[in-house]
Amino acid sequence: MKQYFLIIIGALLLVLPGCYYDVESELYPKNLNTSACDSTAVTYQTKVLPIIQANCYACHAGSAEGGGNILLEGYANLQKVASDGRLYRAVSHTGPSPMPKGGNKLSACDIETINRWIQIGIPNN
Ligand code: HEC
Fold first, then answer.
1. Pocket test for ligand 1, best of 75, 97, 110, 111 (most atoms within 8 A of CB)
2. Is 102 exposed, middle or buried, given 0-12, 13-18 or 19+ CB atoms closer than 10 A?
3. Which terms does the record give in the GO molecular function aspect (predicted)?
């Protein structure tokens, strides 16, 4: 009887860690940034992508049906709307489609980060 008990405990220990999920928005809440805005070392991977993932992928990734079929997933797709000016107009609310649609405007720092990324040539880094 005791052996079975140990086997069950052992099996649970093997299975349970698989039930742990990291939710990015919980680990890195976007409004937790209380330090000054640092838009000097902007890269696609470290600065721009996390903003877009957290605020835009809900509608603009996967099938992108909720995002008017405009796909912003991955560098190449974002690069298109960044280079024709639509990305900045959308996040700065200076164009016809203010984004995130129906949500709060991005923080001034996030908007400045995106602006900076465009100004330095939309690098894929
Ligand atoms: C709730 C869904 C939703 C979210 C979240 C969202 N969008 Fe959109 N987006 C749309 C829809 C729908 C359209 C189609 C145009 C329209 O309805 O205004 C669109 C259109 C756009 C366009 C094209 C605008 C144009 O001028 O053609 C861009 C660029 C864009 N979104 C960027 C973003 C960015 C960047 C974010 C995140 C900061 C974002 N969107 C978040 C739904 C969303």
1. 97
2. exposed
3. electron transfer activity; heme binding
C-beta of 10 in contact with ligand 1 (< 6 A):
no
Centre of ligand 1 from the C-alpha of residue 104, in Å: 13
How many CB atoms lie under 10 A from the CB of residue 57? 16
Assess whether the C-beta atom of 94 lies below 6 angstroms from ligand 1.
no
Q: Average pLDDT for residues 85-94, to the nearest whole number?
A: 98
What residue spans of 1-125 are helical by DSSP H?
2-15, 24-27, 49-55, 57-60, 74-83, 86-91, 108-119
Specify the amino acid at residue 50.
P
* pLDDT digit string, tens, across residues 9-62: 556 556 655 566 676 666 655 554 446 788 789 999 999 999 999 999 999 999
